[in-house]
Amino acid sequence: MTGLPINKRVLKGVVPAILIIIFLSLIILKGCPAGSKVYFTLVRYNPDGSIDSSFGKSGIVVTEIKDFSQIYTLSLQNDGKIVAAGTSDGKYAVVRYHPDGNIDRGFGKNGKFVSGFDADFGLIKKIIITDDGKILAAGYHSIRDGKTEKYSDMSVIRLNSDGTPDYSFGRGGITLINVTGGIHRAYSLAAQSDGKIIVAGICDLYYIIARLNQDGSIDQDFGEFYDGFSLKETGSGDTMSLEIIVSDDDKSVLVGISGNIVTRLTYNKYGIYVDDTSIDTSSRKYLTQYGPYFEANAIKILNDIDIITAGTTAENREFLSFALLKLSFDNSEITQKPRTITTNISQRGPDVANAIAVQNDGKIILGGSAAYDFALVRYNTDGSTDSSFGAHGVITTQIGSEDVIQALVIQSDGKIIAGGYSDTTSGKF
Question: Is 0.85 surpassed by the pTM of this model?
Answer without folding.
Answer: yes
